[in-house]
């Protein structure tokens, strides 16, 4: 559901531009609101969430999909953990739909999906692995990399139950805004992929903005 935010950027606590192929990893405190802004349009922001006080509790696609009865996320969607707790809630969204099924690009999936010669291309999983290695204080390792949300990504479900990766439905300036219901570690990879039609084969920056 399309809902615009009343928040103004000039009152934000901070903002971070995230180039394609880079990551964002910070704690968003309970009660704070985080906006992911698609600066140029049709980008994909592959995102994981963890309980900052107990990182073994993390975003669960299964619980989130089951409880809301929908594989897509938008305004009003609650992001649930693997313990059934609400981690965040989408409070504004000008894109309208976000993917929970497509997963993140990796060297292995690039090989299967595209071609053998794509194996060594940078992927979201690489960004996540770099993030946990460079931020050991969060206590995460590669074993904690699980299923993610693909904000702005368009992955329709076919009548046969399959998945397709289609052109993005976002546009320059579109955003999704989430309010934290607990202290959460946000681990976002701004997708670097040149093979994905979602970003028109031209990966571009996103911006993360946080308000108290």
UniProtKB/TrEMBL annotation:
Protein name: Urea carboxylase
PANTHER family xrefs: RE64534P
Record-linked InterPro entries: DUF1989 (IPR018959), UAAP2 (IPR017791)
Residue stretches making up the DUF1989 domain: 17-185
Phylogenetic classification of the source organism: Bacteria, Pseudomonadati, Pseudomonadota, Gammaproteobacteria, Vibrionales
Domain of life (superkingdom): Bacteria
């Amino acid at each position: 559901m399309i809902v615009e935010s009343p928040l103004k950027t000039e009152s934000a606590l901070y903002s971070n531009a995230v180039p394609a192929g880079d990551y964002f990893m910070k704690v968003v405190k309970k009660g704070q609101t985080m906006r992911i802004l698609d600066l140029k349009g049709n980008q994909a922001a592959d995102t994981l969430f963890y309980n900052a006080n107990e990182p073994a509790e993390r975003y669960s696609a299964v619980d989130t999909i089951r409880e809301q009865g929908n594989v897509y996320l938008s305004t009003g969607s609650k992001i649930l953990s693997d313990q059934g707790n609400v981690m965040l809630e989408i409070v504004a969204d000008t894109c309208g739909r976000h993917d929970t099924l497509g997963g993140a690009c990796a060297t292995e999936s690039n090989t299967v999906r595209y071609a053998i010669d794509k194996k060594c291309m940078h992927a979201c999983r690489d960004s996540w692995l770099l993030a946990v290695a460079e931020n050991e204080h969060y206590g995460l390792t590669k074993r904690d990399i699980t299923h993610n949300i693909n904000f702005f990504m368009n992955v329709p479900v076919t009548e046969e139950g399959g998945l397709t990766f289609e052109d993005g439905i976002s546009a320059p300036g579109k955003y999704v805004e989430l309010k934290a219901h607990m202290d959460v570690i946000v681990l976002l990879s701004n997708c670097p992929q040149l093979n994905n039609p979602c970003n028109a084969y031209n990966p571009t920056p996103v911006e993360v903005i946080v308000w108290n």
